[in-house]
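Attaching the record inline, Q. Sequence:
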Amino acid sequence: MTRAKVLHIIPSLAAVHGGPTTAVIEMMEALNRMGYSNTVALSDDDGRRRRLAADAPERQINGRFYFPKRCDFYTFTPTMSGWLNTHITDFDLVHIHGLFSHVNILAGRACRRHNIPYIVTPHGMANRYGMRHKPFRKMISFRLFERRLLNHAHMVHLTSHDEAGDFDHLNINTVTRIIPLAVRSVGNNKTDAKKGGHKDKTLPYQILYMGRVHPIKNIEAVIAALAQSEMADYHLNICGDGDPKYSAQLKAYAKQLGVAGQITWRGFVSGREKAEIFAKSDIFILPSFSESFGISAIEALSAGLPSVLSSHVANAETLANAGLAKVTDTSATAIANGLCEVSKWKNKAFSTKAKAYFSNHYDKSIISHSLAMLYDEV
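Structure, as predicted:
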C-alpha cells in the first residue's frame, strides 16, 4: 500500500558533490521499500560548469525530473518554478535537501503558496564553518531566503548532535529532529577472509581517504604526516575528485616534502572498485575542518576499518567511545600519532565489532523506519 507521496528537492545528484547525493538516493530507495512514493525534482547540474548530457542514463530513471541549470551561481534553475506550481499539489509532503540554492528557494515558495508541508535537511550547509565560507554572500542570502525557508518548514531534519549544536546559533524556531543518514554498506563476503588475517609486514599500511578533494578536508595535514619519520611504512590512497588546480597544489606539496611516492591519486571511485579499495585498506582517515555527518567514515565502519577522525567530524566522539575510531586535532603530528596507534587495531574481532555497530546504528533499514516516523508526523 502506498503511504505518502513525497517530492524530494535537491540542487544536484551529481556524484562529484559527494555525501548528500549518496544520502538522498539511499533515503529514497529505503522509503520506496516501505511503501512511500518518492519523486525528485532537481537541476541538471553535473559539477562546476557542467550539465548532465541529454542522453545520460540518470535522465532515464523513473521519478526524476531534471531542469536546466542556467549558471553555477546558486544553481540558478528558473524553469523549475512553473513545474513546481503546477505539480506540487500532487504530493503530500516535500522534502528539501540543502540550502543556498535557487531550486530550494523555489520549492519553499511553492509549498507556502499551495499550503504543502515541507521538511528541510540542511546537510551541514548551515554549520558554523560553512557559514564562514563566503560569509557576506551567505549572510545576505540567509536574511532574504533561508531564514524564511527554515522558519516555515514543518520540521528541520538534522543528521547528528554536532550539526544540531551548530544549528542552534541560527535562532530558527522550527522543531528539529536528529536522524542519521542512511548509508550503504561497502563490505562484502569476498573480503572477510582478508580482513580477518594478520597484516603482511613486508607491505606498507594502506591509509584510505575517500571524499572530495577540497580545502575543508585538510588533506595537506595527512600529506605532511607522511613526512614524519615513523610514517615510512604507510601509503595513502586518495579517492575523490576536486578542483584540478587545488589537486595540483597538493601533488606539488607532496613532492616538496618527498612523499609523492607514498601517495596514489585514484580519482573518483564507485561500485565494485570502491568496495575493493576499502577491502585492501588498513586505516581510514578523515581529518576535516568541518563534517556535519561524515558518510565515508560510516562506510569505513561497514567495511570493518578503524578510523582516524578529526574532532570536527560529527560522530567522531561517539565512534571513539565505542572503540572504533581515534579522534585527533587537525595537525600533522596528531594525525601521524593517531595513524600509528590505529594501525595496531585491525583484526578479525575489530572488523566484526565495526560491522555490527554499523548494522545496529546506520544501516538504511534502521534509518528508514525513523524517517517514516518523521514523515508520519507531518
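The domain at 5-182+363-377 is CATH 3.40.50.2000 (Rossmann fold). The chain has two domains: 5-182+363-377, 189-361.

More tomorrow.
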